[in-house]
Amino acid sequence: MAGILAWFWNERFWLPHNVTWADLKNTDESTFPQAEDLYLACPLAFCMFMIRLVFERFIARPCALGLKIQANGPQKAQPNAILEKVFTAITKHPDEKRLEGLSKQLDWDVRTIQRWFRQRRNQEKPSTLARFCESMWRFTFYLYIFTYGVRFLKKSPWLWNTRECWYNYPYQPLTVDLHYFYILELSFYLSLLFSQFTDIRRKDFLLMFLHHVATISLITFSYVNNMVRVGTLVMCLHDAADVLLEAAKMANYAKCQRLCNVLFVMFALVFISSRLGVYPVWILNTTVFESWEIVGPYPSWWVFNVLLVLLQALHTFWSYLIVRIACRAISRGKVSKDDRSDIESSSDEDEVLPPPQKHHTNGTNGAHGTNGYLSSSPCPDEH
Predict the structure, then answer these.
(1) Which of 68, 229, 321, 380 lies 20 to 30 angstroms, CA to CA, from 342?
(2) DSSP assignment, residue 162?
(3) In Å, what is the CA distance from 27 to each residue of 21, 39, 94, 102, 368?
(4) Cα–Cα separations (whole angstroms), residue 175 to 179, 219, 227
(5) DSSP letter, residue 125
């Protein structure tokens, strides 16, 4: 174990040439980031999750009910013992052979059985009320941390001159405000990473999981090797668009379509300009070129920048989704169905299908989008 730890914490990987861990030990004069500081984020992530449960129950839920958001979820499938047994014990996505067998057994046409399974899968999705509560929690946190970040950074010299991120690096003292900002952000994303398995299931689950892992890795990397100055710029830049996104989602859940449209336009402008403009021109420029000139590259520097480039690739993909939704909104006159909706909708062909021979089931027209950008029913989600 000692050998593994020594290999993992190799100074020549984590630190610039001629810098050792001993050089970054805390003294009476200066405090530097210590890897063990990050252990605090784990219990804080659990506390944050518990605070979220209390917040959603006693604050978000009453607000949702005050806005007349109902707790009803997607349309329920017609009770059927045979199909229910297949759904719970065998498969939620029957193949063509099984569908044909069920069709003969029930004397239903295949399309009706497909519709039943789609409704039954959607039935397990959370209600609009639950979605609103989740969005309100995220909105509250993003608004708080973004406000805190702006107030902190406007007094910091590296906001106005990014080269200050690298002068005298890595011997840059860690202030209480910096430490608080980092630990709070790390705790929040750790809570998101684990709650993703219990929250509303998204079609882009793997992408969001990758996003959270990349974010946590970036926060951890930048803290351990004291790249916290540029790290604060990255975090605050990302929080700006997230505030508007969650606000737009809440407006959509509350059926305030005009407000939702306005917030979506604001979100799209901030997201695309900040993550396709400011991020590469301001952040990547300083982490790649200015740091190379002032500090020079070393192994963890390469890893850090690869993670930042990976984040830029995710920005590009999400920007494509936003532009596609915006184009649809222009043609339809409002923000419409989310490309990453977590509720399956019936195809146009399903909508005109005749009812089954013995039982009647209704198609699930109109998707309830929650996780992408905006929908005419529920709304989006991104990070």
Answers:
(1) 68
(2) G
(3) 13, 21, 64, 73, 55
(4) 6, 16, 13
(5) S
Considering only CA atoms, give the Rg of the chain.
25
Helices and strands in the chain: count of H runs, count of E runs = 16, 0
Joined tokens for residue 98: 């099984």
The pLDDT, as a whole number, for residue 314 is: 85
Structural tokens at position 68: 């007349």
Answering whether pTM is above 0.85, one says no
The neighbour count for residue 183, using CB atoms within 10 Å, is 17
Alpha-carbon distance of 54 to 68, in angstroms, equals: 21
Q: What is the dihedral of CA 167, 168, 171, 174, to 10 degrees?
A: -40
Q: What DSSP string runs through 322-383?
A: HHHHHHHHHHHTS----TT-SS----HHHHTPPPPSS-------S----SSS--SSS-----
Query: Which residue type, as a one-letter code, is found at position 113?
Result: I
- Whether 30 and 226 have beta carbons less than 8 Å apart is answered as no
User: What count of other Cβ atoms lies within 10 Å of the Cβ of residue 146?
Assistant: 19
Handedness of CA 128, 132, 138, 139 (dihedral sign): positive
The residues, any chain, with a CB within 8 Å of residue 370's CB and separated by 6 or more, are 126, 131, 200, 202, 249, 338, 341, 342, 343, 378, 379, 380, 381
φ and ψ at residue 355, rounded to 5 degrees = -70, 160
